[in-house]
Amino acid sequence: MAAPGEKQAAKSLQDEEEAVTQVYATLGVALVVVVIGVPLWWKTTEVYRASLPYADIGELKGTQVIYKVGVEFVLPVQTQPQDLLDWREQVDQHLDTGTVYSPISPHYDIKVRTTNKEERTVINKQGSMEDLEASLTQLKPPDVGSCTLYLLPKDSSLEAQAYIGRHRTAFVKSSGDVSRDVRISAHLVRSYFVNDERLKTTFTSATGAQHDKENIAKEQMRAFKTNMGYEVTFSLLNPDPSVLDVQWDVEAGTASYLNPFMDRLADVAEFKVFSQVLYYVDLTVRPAREERTTSYYLTPDQLPHTINPVEAKLGSHVSTYPSVHFLVYVPERGHSPLYIHNEDGTESETNAFFSPRWGGMKIVNVASPPKNASLPHTVTLDLLPIMETFLSHLRLLLGVAQLPPDPWIVVEPADNTAITDWEYDHLLRVRTVENVATATATLASLSQLLGEIGNIVINDDIARQVYLAVDAIRKAQLLLATGELTAAFQASKEAILSSEKAFFDPSLLELLYFPEDQKFAIYIPLFLPMSVPVLMSLFQAYRWYKKRQQQEGKTNQEKEKEGIKEAKKEETEEDIDSEAEEKKSPKGKKQSRKER
To answer: Could you check whether the bond before residue 153 is cis, i.e. omega within 30 degrees of 0?
Structure first.
């Protein structure tokens, strides 16, 4: 039969083993949770974010856009060498952009030379300026984005000071003063062929920088933003079809007047043309009556109110392209003839008005039916004045330069294509600059958005579009700097298309409205019941460990004390033994006696 002390020791040992087993089990559970559970949860709930070129996008924002323009000045063969040097120096001064830094700056590649034999033969024919420009252009056609200026002698047939043709050529009549001739020539280059100010305002507006609204060009306010295509819809409004049966051959009119213009701009944008006839559609505004002529008129304040009611009935096609609306309104018999008055009260020459970034409307007055005529009376519209008006509106909507008239500069109007070569170059340059600035601003906004909101998914397709946009922007900037305008425009179209695909990707919105507080609201009820027992067990294990450490420390101290006592006891016993041995030995006795 075991003694009570042995039973108590065995029970203590058993409790100790159970405590150790419980601690090891707690540590095992905690280890599984930390090493396996947390990483697995973290990986399965991780938001996939592909890497983006944030540094490259930041560099694009600070990159200066430079566009190269080739300019060639051709002087008469009688020009003295000193005059050629003066021309070169003064042209460099007038076309120099200066040392002030600008985010967009031109680089003029200037050449000054005299006429060759073939050019002198053409100039000496003394034909019309239109024929002269066509012949010189045929001899040496300037490249896209460049221009050539000829200085004509004083006795030339040019009556004005300067003449700008349909192509990329201009003429300046010599005055004998080099400074004056250079100043006029530089003005033609900067204000007409290139139009530096419009390019700067376009670039500044597209980048989203702060600017003065008064300095924004009118072309910017009324023209559409850059798009891959446009839907052009012609609508005939007949408010009273029971009286007038209005007919128009819009297909033939489009083929004759509009198609040459759209074909010329085929590289700029895609055009889709539609037509429709709407009956019983009124303007919903009451025109005023002019008693003197028994006619009716609309004031400029009434014109905006004529569009809103009609726009709801025009319909729209399913397309990502913006819609351009051109309306032909035939007044009803009770308000005919109907005219549009200008601000000063005079009648509009075209009897039409233009709405920025929307389209235009033209009022066409037709003859009233004869008294004995059967109704409805058939009327066929003449599309020539209608298409001419709408073509001028379309030029404004697309951003073709609309320069103010100058009495001393003759500008040759465009042919049936409705756009000259130098206007086409300017449109390409403006669109390229706008596309580059817009794509850069879009990528900057996207990178800022993705940097601030960390729970948005960035899939590989978005990353690919961003990389394509960055490469296209750099390519467009490089091509602009080398003067390859057409290729630069195509690269800028790719840049803005890729940047907008990335920015408006639907996947960017899936987790946009899933903030961090909602994450805690979902995960806390899931992990809190599981984590509390684990943490309490770890705490109990820690307390057990500390208690065991204290017990071991006390045991070691007691052992040390016992060891010290035993050591002292042994020393005492040794001293007693040595004294006893000394007493037993005879030498010890003799010595003790002597000492006595």
So the answer is: no
